[in-house]
Amino acid sequence: RQLVKDGVLQGYVLGSYSARKLGMQTTGNAGGNHNLIVQSGAHDFAGLLKQMGTGLLVTELLGSGINMVTGDYSRGAAGFWVENGVILHPVEEITIASNMADMLKMIVGIGSDVVIQGSKQVGSILIERMTVACE
Q: DSSP assignment, residue 20?
């Protein structure tokens, strides 16, 4: 079943507890999502970097920082600085932040470089804008 189609929410991933709290039916997902496949886009990884132009390529996330009530997202990260679609140098000890709803709205590309991690499959995701903090 599709959870999102053409940017519109089609369904939920709900265990018994969440379904009961929302007054909805369980979808049998008490242990989280399984067999989640995010449809890849037309660009490969290099194409996404070119589309990004200048920005941050996040390759590592640290900790867990999602407020499940507000959707606020803040995590430690590391990766590489990119200019004109070219990876220039590593960056570390940074924090990236946004709101989950805003992040979903700002997805501008999903790469064809699909990685399979357990029962999940997704390519690189290009998000238009997030807050980045560092010293």
A: H
Look-up of token digits 């960056």: 91
pLDDT in tens, 2-59: 888 877 888 888 888 888 988 998 887 767 776 777 888 888 999 999 999 999 999 9
Distance CA 52, CA 79 (A): 15
- Cα–Cα separations (whole angstroms), residue 96 to 19, 43, 46: 31, 24, 22
Residue ranges of domains in the chain: 1-34, 35-133
- The sign of the torsion formed by the CA atoms of 18, 20, 21, 25 equals positive
What is the distance between the alpha carbons of residues 101 and 122, in angstroms, rounded to a whole number?
A: 19
Backbone angles phi, psi at 27, to 5 degrees: -110, 10
Residue 52 CB neighbours (<10 A): 20
Where are the strands (E) in the chain, listed by range?
4-5, 8-9, 36-37, 55-62, 72-83, 86-99, 107-110, 115-117, 120-122, 125-127, 131-133
Nearest partner of 116 among 41, 56, 35, 60, judged by Cα: 35
